[in-house]
Amino acid sequence: MRVHVVSDVHGNSRDLATAGDGADALVCLGDLILFLDYADHSRGIFPDLFGVENADLIVQLRTEGRFAEARELSAQLWEGIDRVAATEAAVRAQYTEMFAAFPTPTYATYGNVDMPPLWPEYANEGTTVLDGETADIGGLRFGFVGGGLRTPMRTPYEIDDETYAAKVAALGPVDVLCSHIPPDVPELCYDTVARRFERGSEALLEAVHAVRPRYHLFGHVHQPLVQRMRVGQTECVNVGHFNATGTPWVLEW
């Protein structure tokens, strides 16, 4: 059995269309939307609406941890624009491309930069969306937990710690634990380019110790200090920043 795993697709529909080649199934751990490409500030919904110079500035403010100033700039730019309508229209255009690129079968969960209410309109019969749910893939039990925890970035699908922990607990025993964000392990949460810790989940770490899955697969941290490490009996793997690499991570058994 061979499964390809991707995360942090962020608009890369071209490589997503071939990500399942040679695999029995594709697993996607979220972040299909591209609001702003931190490597190329000309790409994404934000620069399309407000230009590259403003994208440069907001990346600078966020990178320096000046989140209040970044939010103030964003509020000024959105003034007089129907933010909900403009964002939804742009996201729908991206989702049309992303979901059309998914092979059959695909098992997917949400990232923190996703809009879950829209997914049912785009997920076809070959795509199974799971969040706080499990699926049998090739005889192994896969558990999926979508979204991220609340941060100053205020991305679209951030939830409180208690709600997130409840989704983790609902999975029960699993062979492969799949989430968008990592467990709360410093080496797995630190982004070496952004030079900051992304939020990891204590509930996921507790599940790794208690349930002891074979693998815990995740993304979210684009340039991790450590891409792979063993925690107890579990191999914890950041499957990679698919937007940049265009290459899925491979799991075979």
TrEMBL record:
Species classification: Bacteria, Bacillati, Actinomycetota, Actinomycetes, Kitasatosporales
User: What is the official name of this protein in its record?
Assistant: Metallophosphoesterase
* Calcineurin-like phosphoesterase domain segment(s): 1-224
Which residue windows are coiled coil? none
Superkingdom, natural source = Bacteria
Under Pfam families, the record lists: Metallophos (PF00149)
Question: InterPro entries given for it?
Answer: Calcineurin-like_PHP, Metallo-depent_PP-like, UPF0046_metallophosphoest
Q: Which Gene3D superfamilies match?
A: 3.60.21.10
